[in-house]
Amino acid sequence: MRPLRLAVMLEQALEVGGGFQQPLNDLLWLRDWASKSGNEIVVYSPDPRTLEILKEFGVTARLLKFGPLDHVFLFLKYCGPFDLVQIASKLKSPFERTLIRDGIDVVHFTSTSKRHLLLYELPFIITIFDGCHRDAPEFPEVRTFGEFERREILFGLASIKAAVVIVNAPELTDDLCRRYAMQRERAVCIPFSPSTYVSQSQPNADADAAVLTKFRLEPGYLFYPAQFWPHKNHVTLLAALALLRERGIIERLVLCGSDRGGRDKIDAAIRAYGLSDQISIIGFVESVELGALYRSAAALVMPSYFGPTNLPPLEAWAVGTPVIYPEAFKAQAGDAAILFDYDEPRSLAEAITALRTDGTRERLRAAGRLRLAQFTAETEAGRLQFARHLERLKHRLALTAR
């Protein structure tokens, strides 16, 4: 039986943060799987910068941009009746024709890509990180200008048409089965794992100090790495710091990430609360700098509304940094975080205060190591299950080889 030729699509840009780092982890594992199993992977990205980053890991990728005709196909696909035209005429998008010319058997989307709508002949694997447009539709980034409807089309079709659906939490499998009638046996749960840049980052006093000097920081700050979206809930964190300041407790906060339209409101809140001397906004940081920023923090504080899982807690646990996290995501955090109500600044203020009580930091570090070890074991189990699905696909596709 000839090798399975798997296309691995890395569409997210580095600035997306976890949406880039998690697919990178998946790719590195798939490279090892292909080497050991005698199969092949071909890596594609529409972003030239991603190709350069992958070279650092010894991965050669192909640039595959999506042209105007592909976008026409997508638009018509959203319109619905175009399916009948394609069925009758057997039209294929330029995107799919390129993959077929490259001898691809299966397309693996490492994010919830709209490009799966361009595939009529090739089977695909889809990754679904969350269902937050259903969980929290009040946020504009998942509701306005047709975004909610677009996601419904993507999620609905992907979860029932994909040969395999990769999720990061059992709760997400339950949601997809309930909302879109996904067949449960097609889901593979592979929990998030820390960014390679963080997990392989070794403590180095001089190097860490250089990073802090670059950003004019002193150790012991609260750290929140997140893009500036409304759902990231920065304002509740600022309100909590203002409450603490009223009690004479001054906490410094470092924010990093790219602006997605929420920065102006955050700047205004900082001024309104009088917190300018406590807040450092350092923008997008290089991946290699993240380890030092986590290690130098008193705690990761993450009030995001979107889950059920997030990447930063795992990265904080990997370097021994305590975590303060919403109680809504207790299924991920277990006892390895101080939990709070993400709608209540006072609850978050109390959680920050609790960090300073005797023995709390040591307890959280130990619990974080155990929690990370548990997720590591679950990730390995999920990848073994995924490998079995890939072998099943290889056998079935051999029966229908072109």
From TrEMBL:
**Taxonomic superkingdom:** Bacteria
A Pfam family reported for this protein in Swiss-Prot or TrEMBL: Glycos_transf_1
The alphabetized UniProt keywords are:
Transferase
Give start and end of each Glycosyl transferase family domain.
217-369
Q: Which InterPro entries match?
A: Glyco_trans_1
Which PANTHER family is this protein grouped with? BLL6006 PROTEIN (PTHR46401:SF8), GLYCOSYLTRANSFERASE WBBK-RELATED (PTHR46401)
Q: What is this protein called?
A: Glycosyltransferase involved in cell wall biosynthesis
| UniProt source species | Bradyrhizobium daqingense
